[in-house]
Design goal:
Blueprint (H helix, E strand, L loop, with lengths): L9 E3 L14 H13 L3 H12 L6 E4 L2 E7 L5 E7 L5 H13 L1 H8 L5 H9 L12 E4 L8 H16 L2 H6 L4 H17 L10 H7 L34 H22 L15 H9 L10 H11 L3 H23 L7 H13 L8 E4 L2 E4 L4 E5 L5 E7 L2 E4 L7 H18 L1
Helix pairs in contact: 1-6, 2-6, 3-4, 3-8, 11-12, 11-13
């Protein structure tokens, strides 16, 4: 036990349910869950905990040196206090860890960036300090009187994996040091190491001084881009327009040009605007959709202009409106997913099946009906569409038509969660 550990506690508010979401995205989050799976004697309890955590049954989580605590609610409404204990590092182990952290500049920079790089953990292990838990290190305590990991402690561990993804200092606090104390000790060691460095000799090398005279001064910093594109002048005048000139269409094209210029300027200055990218030169029909999608901030275009664009694109107004939503979700790629249906074959079919099988637990997988590259969730208004590049797009049904519910996702579970989330938001707004 570390007699000098700072008795600091952090409390994290309860996280919302996470249907179809993995509980660890970082390598250290996966290592935490592996310690749970290797320690628990009953794999069914681990699965039960995963379902409870995914349903949002874990309350606020208290983290302090050597212990994490939360109240976990069962489906029947009963509540249980669950604790998981993790041995704190001794003062001697912390001293060795701090020496390892300041030994390489990359270690210290990563910690300051709230990252836990594998090479830091490997160097710490070589020095005899185990940061991440191993088999048997996560000791459970629960008032349900289970003697091993139960569903409540497993649910707590799954939720902590999400907290660790966001902030690896949660793990360091469990091991006995809060963030402020840790950074204070790191700075003290780093300052001491700098003081031990030999001082540079007085003066400068003559060759270096001569060469410096030819070095041009640094360029001034780039200016900030304007907050929004400028507005083109109004072309509405008392005089009749020249033959073949449509003032409304010309104003619209001028506004589009200003918006495109603003987007490219923002990107060149390091603050990209999120304007949908095009994949090669668009066709005339695709370009009509791009124009109808309006400026990057989503401003709609004039009704008469929209009618002309619908006609030029070979679509009805309703079809063009759906195409605009697809373009805003993903540019040309999003539009292709909306309007192109294809049948995956061979390797693409095998990858799609593997992705669908691994996205959910067996007892959580939705019932899907396949048609080409589209999988409809039976009994719901949700659909998954597979693009030719292997990404998955969320779709939902509105007024009898399938429309995009968001941008692409790398796996079907994330895409389906986006579609369900969009529907839930609409229902709340309604």
């Amino acid at each position: 036990m570390n007699d000098h550990a700072i008795d600091t506690e952090r409390t994290f508010a309860a996280l919302p349910p996470a249907p179809g979401r993995g509980f660890a995205r970082t390598w250290w989050g996966h290592a935490w869950l592996k310690a749970l799976e290797d320690t628990a004697l009953d794999a069914q309890q681990v699965r039960t905990g995963r379902r409870l955590a995914r349903a949002g049954a874990v309350g606020a989580v208290s983290v302090r040196p050597g212990r994490i605590t939360a109240v976990v609610h069962d489906p029947d409404g009963s509540a249980h206090r669950a604790d998981v204990l993790l041995e704190r590092l001794s003062d001697d182990e912390w001293a060795r860890f701090l020496d390892v952290a300041v030994e390489r500049s990359g270690h210290l920079a990563a910690l300051l960036d709230r990252d836990l790089p594998p090479h830091l953990v490997e160097d710490a292990t070589a020095a005899g300090i185990e940061l991440l838990p191993g088999i048997g290190d996560l000791e459970p305590e629960c008032d349900c009187d289970a003697w091993d990991h139960c569903g409540h402690t497993a649910a707590l561990c799954h939720l902590v994996a999400r907290l660790l993804d966001q902030d690896p200092f949660v793990l360091l606090l469990m091991r006995g040091r809060d963030e402020r104390a840790l950074f204070g000790e790191l700075r003290a060691r780093d300052t001491a190491a700098d003081a031990d460095e030999p001082s540079a000799p007085d003066g400068v090398d003559a060759a270096e001084a001569y060469a410096a005279a030819c070095v041009l001064p640094s360029l001034p910093p780039l200016p900030d881009p304007p907050a929004e594109p400028g507005l083109p002048p109004s072309l509405v005048t008392e005089a009749a327009p020249a033959p073949g000139v449509d003032p409304a269409a010309l104003e619209f094209l001028a506004a589009q040009t200003a918006a495109a210029a603003h987007s490219r300027l923002a990107g060149a200055l390091g603050t990209p605007s999120g304007d949908p990218l095009t994949d090669g030169e668009p066709t005339v029909a695709q370009d009509a959709v791009r124009l109808a999608a309006g400026a990057p901030d989503g401003r709609p275009c004039d009704g008469a202009v929209l009618d002309r664009l619908a006609k030029g694109s070979g679509r009805s107004r309703a079809q063009l409106e759906r195409a605009v939503r697809a373009w805003r979700a993903g540019g040309q790629a999003g539009l292709s997913v909306l309007e192109e249906e294809w049948t995956p074959g061979g390797e693409a079919q095998a990858r799609a099946r593997a992705a669908l099988e691994s996205a959910w637990e067996d007892d959580e997988r939705p019932c899907l009906r396949a048609a080409g590259n589209r999988w409809t969730v039976v009994g719901t208004g949700h659909q998954l569409r597979l693009a030719r590049d292997g990404r998955w797009w969320p779709y939902r049904k509105e007024d009898g038509h399938w429309v995009p519910a968001g941008g692409p996702a790398p796996d079907p579970a994330t895409a389906l969660a986006a579609a369900e989330g969009a529907t839930a938001m609409d229902e709340e707004a309604g």
